[in-house]
C-alpha cells in the first residue's frame, strides 16, 4: 500500500476553505444548528439556576405568564 504524503498546512487551508464553502452554501441550516445550540445552552443554564432557587407553585407561574402577578 502506498504512503500518502500530505502537507499539514495545505490540508488545514483546504479544510478551512471547504468549511467556509459549506457554511456559505448551507447558511440556513448552519444558522439553525447554531441557534439550537445556543437555546440548549440557555436552557441548561436556566435549569442549573432553577435548581438553586426556591420552588414556585404552578399557579404563581401561570399568574406571572398571564400578567396577573
Would you write up a description of this structure?
- The chain is mostly helical and about 70 residues long.
- The protein has helices at about 10-25, 25-50, 60-65.
- The radius of gyration is 23 Å and the shape is elongated.
- The termini are far apart.
- It holds the Pfam family RelB_like_antitoxin.
- InterPro entries: Antitoxin_put.
Keywords:
69 residues; mainly alpha; 3 helices
- Overall geometric form: elongated
> Number of DSSP helices?
3
Number of E-type strands:
0
Mean pLDDT: 89
Gyration radius, in Å:
23 Å
- Contiguous low-pLDDT stretches (5 residues minimum) are none
Structural class: mainly alpha
Helix and strand element order: HHH
Q: Percent helix among the residues?
A: over 70%
Largest sheet: none
Cα separation of the termini: 73 Å
- Strand portion, in percent? under 5%
User: Which quaternary structure do these chains form?
Assistant: single chain
Amino acid at each position: 500500500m502506498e504512503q500518502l504524503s500530505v502537507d499539514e498546512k495545505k490540508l488545514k487551508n483546504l479544510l478551512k476553505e471547504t468549511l467556509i464553502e459549506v457554511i456559505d452554501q448551507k447558511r440556513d441550516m448552519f444558522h439553525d444548528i447554531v441557534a439550537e445550540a445556543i437555546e440548549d445552552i440557555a436552557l441548561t443554564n436556566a435549569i442549573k439556576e432553577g435548581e438553586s432557587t426556591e420552588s414556585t407553585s404552578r399557579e404563581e407561574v401561570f399568574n406571572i405568564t398571564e400578567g396577573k402577578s
